[in-house]
Amino acid sequence: MSRGWQRRVLSVLAAWLLASGSMPPAVAGPSASCACDCPEFFSSKREACRSQCANYGPLSTSCVIQRERSRGRSDADIETAIKDCSTDCAVLRSETRPLCLDAVYPLVIACKASGPQGATARRVDCYLDYLVRELEEPMKSQFRQQNADQLAAMDQQGRDLFVGNMLDALSGEGYRCPR
């Protein structure tokens, strides 16, 4: 994905949320302990609930808009601030601005989960090993190769996001890949 395309997506999402004045529903149905809402997103429960709340998906941006409005920021200022947030994994791994960390929260999680240098061959191999762990030969080798080819065809950003999302989900199940 190009940075320009990602900025347009963020811009359109922010503009739509600002214009509509509405907040999307939680992406995943809440469990008894997770509400998957904005107050929870900004609470200490965020990390514990993020897997149940589908990493808070588009809710993160709408929560940031809602929070910034309550702080008296204009919609134009909020939109500009969100547009200024990078969606590039190399940048997001070291991002420090709270507004950006919150607004693109799902991307931050995926980028960091892909590893400090992104989805390295070692991390991709670890993911592929997990993916085919229960298959029998020859399907195991064929399926692994097909998936390896698909990942190799992605640009680094796409690979970081995809592998990062998968490894983050697997870490919730206790599966860890070496960095």
Strand content: under 5%
Question: From N to C, what is the helix and strand string?
Answer: HHHHHHHHHHH
DSSP helix fraction = 55-70%
Uncertain segments are 1-31
The number of helices is: 11
Mean pLDDT across every amino acid position: 84
Question: How does this model look, in words?
Answer:
The protein is built from 11 helices and no strands. Helix 1 packs antiparallel against helix 5 and helix 4 packs across helix 5. The N terminus is likely disordered.
Quickly describe the structure:
The protein is mainly alpha-helical and 179 residues long.
Give the SSE layout:
Blueprint: H1 3-20, H2 38-41, H3 46-49, H4 59-70, H5 75-83, H6 89-92, H7 98-103, H8 105-113, H9 121-131, H10 139-153, H11 156-171
Highlighted features:
179 residues; mainly alpha; 60% helix; elongated; disordered N terminus
